[in-house]
Specification:
DNA polymerase, domain 1; 3 domains; nine-stranded mixed sheet; three-stranded antiparallel sheet; 48% helix
């Protein structure tokens, strides 16, 4: 642990010192330890530094609280990521309101070449979670080094984390509380599993509750540390829309999964698209092409064709649709592909014979 860690923690515990004040102090004084060693007279000379903030800097209670937090960090083998460290998420450093310090538990490289944040409603539909699973599975196929970020909440968030774990991707959960707890508690086991190849990340010290206003702060980290934010389902209001707004302010790419006009959990995504605040998300391939990451995906698609040689163009269309939305009922498949059901049944039968698709009860099909 860096010998300046105590003072780095203390800097974030000074009442009245937010991100901008902290950065300003570091720029003028030049050293986190020196901030607490400076005389009152020298601190008074710093422009726009209120007297009450100087009182707090000089208050010995700040360092006592920092010592307590450092003890917690040491006991629990946590990481401290200061904004000047190379291990700090460098994409975040581009954001004016990025946290000065982050606490981490686990192992993950936050500066991978491709980082995607996947967010959405807590009241996810089956269609939404299935799209999330397929999207992350295909991201993994395109590049197993992609980092998936979300917020460990119910619905789309936890689906994104669990799908990433299933596909062997590293995943980061950004939390709205200290690392002395997991919220919501039913997601504790997933959080534990993430520690092997992922990370729990927060700007909040221990004993910080998951209060409502902390989630907005959390969302700016989810938005800022990624190349793109993908919104999979959202009502007319919700945290994922806040994340999308923040991502747009950071000039990040924002994508939204569209839905039917009357679907309550698609209202937010449809509004983002209608207001030109998000790119309409049709498929993983379209996402990768938009991001300039399609080379790897097309290589995977070529490999898949080698695994199922001799497919007709229509058979390939069916397999592509099932890869995005499986399992699918034959009537839905017919509508999506604009192929008559009677004709579709014959083609599906051919694919069954080739052991490419599998028929399930109720006229439902999936890839074998």
């Amino acid at each position: 642990m860096n010998h300046k860690t105590l003072y780095r923690i203390a800097l974030t515990l000074i009442k009245g010192v937010g991100v901008m004040h902290a950065r300003n102090l570091m720029e003028i004084v030049g050293d986190e330890e020196a901030i607490f060693r400076e005389s009152r007279q020298r601190l008074k000379a710093i422009p726009r530094l209120p007297e009450k903030v100087i009182d707090e800097i000089r208050n010995p209670e700040v360092l006592r609280r920092a010592e307590k937090e450092l003890s917690f960090v040491t006991r629990n083998n946590l990481q401290i990521l200061f904004f000047t460290d190379s291990s700090y998420p460098q994409r975040l450093t581009q954001c004016i309101d990025a946290p000065v310090l982050l606490y981490g538990k686990g192992e993950a490289d936050l500066n991978r070449s491709k980082v995607v944040s996947v967010v959405g409603t807590r009241n996810a539909t089956r269609q939404g979670t299935q799209f999330c699973e397929t999207f992350i599975r295909e991201l993994s196929a395109s590049d197993p080094d992609i980092l998936v970020v979300s917020g460990l909440a119910y619905g789309i968030d936890i689906s994104a984390h669990r799908s990433a774990l299933k596909e062997g991707l590293s995943t980061v959960a950004v939390l709205a509380h200290g690392l002395d707890r997991i919220y919501p508690s039913p997601h504790r086991q997933t959080a534990v599993e993430m520690l092997r190849t992922g990370l729990l990340l927060t700007e909040f010290p221990s004993e910080t509750n998951p209060d409502r206003h902390n989630f907005v702060k959390r969302n700016r980290i989810v938005a800022g540390m990624a190349d793109a934010v993908v919104v999979i389902e959202s009502g007319e209001k919700g945290g994922s829309l806040t994340t999308a707004d923040i991502a747009n302010s950071y000039f990040r790419e924002v994508f939204a999964l569209p839905g039917r006009v009357k679907d309550q959990m698609s209202a937010g995504c449809n509004r983002l698209i209608a207001d030109n605040q998000a790119v309409l998300l049709r498929s993983t391939e379209q996402f990768l092409i938009h991001m300039g990451w399609e080379k790897e995906f097309r290589g995977v698609q070529s490999t898949q064709k080698e695994l199922f040689p001799g497919l007709s163009e229509e058979e390939e269309r069916i397999c592509s649709m099932l890869s995005l939305h499986e399992p699918m009922q034959v009537n839905n498949l017919s509508v999506e592909l604009n192929i008559p059901v009677t004709e579709l049944f014959l083609t599906l039968l051919e694919l069954e014979v080739k052991n490419v698709v599998r028929a399930l009860p109720g006229g439902v099909y999936q890839l074998a």
